[in-house]
């Protein structure tokens, strides 16, 4: 359908321009670093290009695109986690990850936030990857639970619970002296 | 003691109560991007996709090359000018191969005859044929190999012992012996 159009490259370019900023910030909020975010976004759009031929508009285009974003970002985080030696299962592990993220963001020339923003981004990075994606979609993008359920293939109840746990944990780090 | 889960779920209107610090934050991204990053992203992406498509095409061409090559070789071999020499060459090859095959079959048959079969074959041959064969190839026989076998095959009943020979010689008169000698 899409590739059969007269100028598929031109149509795709318009689609990229429409969605690139939303997708980029969604990924960047979860990964923090520009280079990683750029790589993941490239992969997302390549998957979109390759998959557009089979896209049958059974779901909304943006739902389908966000599903690709979620999958690619989760895959990247899992790969990164396998390479990292830091434990994430207990509170000490979360604290270590939080402190590491604070240091990393402070030395990042592309970070442009104040202290509370620094804490927020560092806290987001301590979340388990599924909670992280639910939190960024709900808090920043304000996607409804029903839409998220379609994107992530998870029940609304489970999404609400994930968001609740994420919010509580982030609030803990934000209020921590 | 346990609370209703829905009461804890922070929809954005409840977020102020559950997480007041988070609720009060600005949602603008606290990050910078390289200059003109978004302006140039789509063109870089399309370049990468184009390179990817070329790689896929190249891989497809590489896969298709092998059948094309075989077809071309067959077409070349079946050209009228080349057909006659090629058929001659193939026929020659078949002839040489079948000759070698026959020789090896003969050798295999000879090698498979055991001593018993050989004896039976020789016994069925007529004496005249054996005699003629031996006369014809007399130079090629090795006496040292033939004589022991001949000694063994002599019928001892027909051989005179020493005593009988002497008595016969004594009965002969000297004149007869002299005539026989000269």
Describe, in plain words, how this protein is organized in 3D.
- The complex is a heterodimer of chains A (177) and B (182).
- Chain A is an all-alpha fold and 177 residues long.
- Chain A has a single domain, classed as Rna Polymerase Sigma Factor, Chain: A, CATH 1.10.1740.10.
- Helices cover 74% and strands 0% of the residues of chain A.
- Chain A is built from 8 helices and no strands.
- In chain A, helix 2 (34-51) crosses helix 3 (61-83), helix 5 crosses helix 8 (156-175) and helix 6 crosses helix 8.
- Chain A is globular and about 60 Å long.
- Chain B contains 10 helices and no strands.
- Chain B has 182 residues and is mainly α.
- The mean pLDDT of chain B is 71.
- In chain B, 74% of the residues lie in helices and 0% in strands.
- Classes of the chains: A mainly alpha (177), B mainly alpha (182).
- Chain A binds chain B through residues 9, 12-13, 16-17, 20-21, 24-25, 28-29, 32, 34, 38, 41-42, 45-46, 49, 109-114, 116-118, 120-121, 139-140, 142, 157, 160-161, 163-164, 167-168, 170-171, 174-175, and chain B through 5-6, 8-10, 12, 15, 18-22, 25-27, 29-34, 37-38, 41-43, 45-46, 48-49, 52.
